Amino acid sequence: MIDARGYSAADAQSRLSLFRFEREEGGPHDVTIDVLYCGVCHSDIHQARNEWKNTVYPCVPGHEVVGRVSAVGANVTRHALGDLVGVGCMIDSCRSCEPCTSAEENYCEGPNSWLATYNGPMVPTSKATTGENMYGRDNSYGGYSNVIVVSEKFVLSIPAALKPEVAAPILCAGATTFSALKYWGVSKGQRVGVVGFGGLGDMAAKLAKAMGADVTVFTRTSEKLQEAARFGVTGVLEHDTAALQKLSSAFDFIISTVPERHDVNPFVKLLKRGSTLCVAGALEPMSPVNNQDVAFHRRSVAGSLIASLADTQEVLEFCAEHAIGPDVEVIRMQDINAAYDRVTRGDVRFRFVIDMSSLTESEIE
Amino acid sequence: MIDARGYSAADAQSRLSLFRFEREEGGPHDVTIDVLYCGVCHSDIHQARNEWKNTVYPCVPGHEVVGRVSAVGANVTRHALGDLVGVGCMIDSCRSCEPCTSAEENYCEGPNSWLATYNGPMVPTSKATTGENMYGRDNSYGGYSNVIVVSEKFVLSIPAALKPEVAAPILCAGATTFSALKYWGVSKGQRVGVVGFGGLGDMAAKLAKAMGADVTVFTRTSEKLQEAARFGVTGVLEHDTAALQKLSSAFDFIISTVPERHDVNPFVKLLKRGSTLCVAGALEPMSPVNNQDVAFHRRSVAGSLIASLADTQEVLEFCAEHAIGPDVEVIRMQDINAAYDRVTRGDVRFRFVIDMSSLTESEIE
């Protein structure tokens, strides 16, 4: 076993604190990674606080993990000792269902779907009704820790042009938005809307712009209008109904990155005939959608989830090539609770990234 | 002016009754039609009872109109005296917007959208804020009448192989469902679900089957399971959760034909990864859709509205070629109020069609 340290939530009410645990030694196909940086995703907060009602405690969040390979199994061929690598939202999948064999592991239809980097498997053994849990474990511990062991297939290569702390949020925020923009065919000259201007919105706007689109971000935070201008995209306040009215039927694609239940109706009206609004940030019942607005222009409201391994690798390379990446604020592990509070009130531009070296400096908060 | 007779609702509470009115004489591009049959669409009931809060009274419903040409304007070239013709949901559109010039008049983006066959224009003059109503009228009177005058472009040709009373419901129920099935690419070997088994559901099931799909209809009415078997399609009760469970991720496309707000979540789960559920029957805010079920399989919930003129003509010919059509129950005009009550409680297999010759037999109910 490997002695590991991390930060965990003990229950839905607890602040995160130091947690010592053991990780299994890597097998022949596994890569052991010394974690350098881990991004802070809004999902981490939902999960730590049991807002999706499926958290297994203790919960060690973190699925935007960048580190250096410290050991490889005998059969590992893709990664070598010392490589800078990344781990995103998944660390395994069934590998045999139709999506898995079509390189869409993020839509794995195996009995427990894909294995989440933390709080996986999705159906814990204790709740599994169809025989044994296929991944043979009750829980997984994420990247808020000094070391992680992952099957080589689920380990991404970080391009040399990307700083490790900038690469980290690309593994979820970047990949999730890239996957949707790519799937719905965003291309040069199109008009793309981004609803919500946090960690995912920041990446969605930059990626869509790099794809050649004319990008508008919709935000509730007037201070963020300046940020939009700084990125070279148009910013519109969500409650500026006169501005929204002028944008009726103007967009080829809209991605919503708001990480909770919200009302998409004002944005559905902005879609061109036959176009799609994709909800990529929320995983809950949405506000009722008025089918009059949908049907009168044959629009669609879709959803998409994280990204395949191939898309994740592709977005890392896309960001390196286009010299884009998230705006990050690097914090110490010990600052995580304050950071959660700031994320919750939208006070971050745009992604916190934990410098994991802080974990060794001081282990007591 | 032409003296016309029809049946109208005087207000939201009134039963329909005889109504004498005048229609404008046809101009050089117009076709005057002696109405033979008119289908009874659930929309007629919504509109007569002001359930969409936009009814202009008196309201003469009817947008599944089949009749014989009794006069043509000097410039009419498509239709001739004595032709059997049809009129669907629209009698005009702006003719200049992008959808109109792309043969998708049903998505007209002109200032008043397309002109509905009855209760049109969508924005009545009295409520228009952007200058004069482009169609120059406050209301339109539909096919529950003995005569109708329509611009030739909006008049369809009824193939000789179709009986006129069978052709009538194809003009809305058939066209609306055909348009969605065609747009989402339903094809041989696919599995297609039809939610709701009334007038639209009947046509959707028959059309999808004729396109080569394996069709399942979902109904609340156990008596309709036999009807499904009779049509050669599978019937499943909407509340049979065990049956629905077995159909998870099984469908390539699902069309909902339920004519009011309803919960699509149980059917979203039946879609294959990347597939679409199209709401074609309801025009109101739907029940909240759980984005977890949508996003986890990159599904879409879409809407579509009636059909273009081209698709309407195409479905008439498709039905003639495949020898399919709605199951109809022919009624007298005087029976309309009882028919509305029966439609409301789902007691029709599957479409009432009014024999308009009844209007001359007795003008007093």
Describe this structure as you would to a colleague:
The structure is a homodimer of 365-residue chains. Chain A has 365 residues and is of the alpha/beta class. Chain A has two domains: 2-162 and 325-361, Medium-chain alcohol dehydrogenases, catalytic domain (Quinone Oxidoreductase, Chain A, domain 1, Alpha-Beta Complex), CATH 3.90.180.10; 173-303, Rossmann fold, CATH 3.40.50.720. Helices cover 25% and strands 25% of the residues of chain A. Chain A has eleven helices and 17 strands. Chain A has helices at 42-48, 98-101, 164-183, 199-210, 224-231, 241-246, 265-268, 291-295, 309-322, 336-344, 358-361, and strands at 2-8, 17-23, 30-39, 65-72, 84-87, 90-92, 115-116, 147-151, 156-157, 191-195, 214-219, 234-237, 251-256, 271-279, 300-303, 328-332, 351-355. In chain A, strands 3, 4, 5, 8, 9, 16 and 17 form a seven-stranded mixed β-sheet that branches. In chain A, helix 10 links the parallel strand 16 (328-332) and strand 17. In chain A, helix 3 (164-183) packs across helix 4. The model of chain A has no long low-confidence stretch (mean pLDDT 94). Chains A and B meet through strand 14, helix 8 and strand 15 of A and strand 14, helix 8 and strand 15 of B.
CATH topology of the largest domain in chain A: Quinone Oxidoreductase, Chain A, domain 1
SS-based structural class of chain A?
A: alpha/beta
Shape of chain A: globular
User: What number is the mean pLDDT of chain A?
Assistant: 94
Residue stretches of chain A low in confidence (pLDDT < 50, at least 5 long) are none
Strand content of chain A: 25-35%
> What integer value in Å does the Rg of chain A equal?
20 Å
| Oligomer class | homodimer
Largest sheet of chain A: 7 strands, mixed
Number of self-contained structural domains of chain A: 2
**N-end to C-end Cα span of chain A:** 26 Å
Number-wise, the strands of chain A total 17
Q: What is the architecture of the largest domain in chain A at the second tier of CATH?
A: Alpha-Beta Complex
Largest interface, per-chain counts?
A: A-B, 35 and 35 residues
Tally of helical runs of chain A: 11
Helicity level of chain A: 25-40%
The CATH C-level name of the largest domain in chain A is Alpha Beta
Output the helix-strand order of chain A. Answer: EEEHEEEHEEEHEHEHEHEHEHEHEHEH
CATH homologous superfamily identity of the largest domain in chain A: Medium-chain alcohol dehydrogenases, catalytic domain
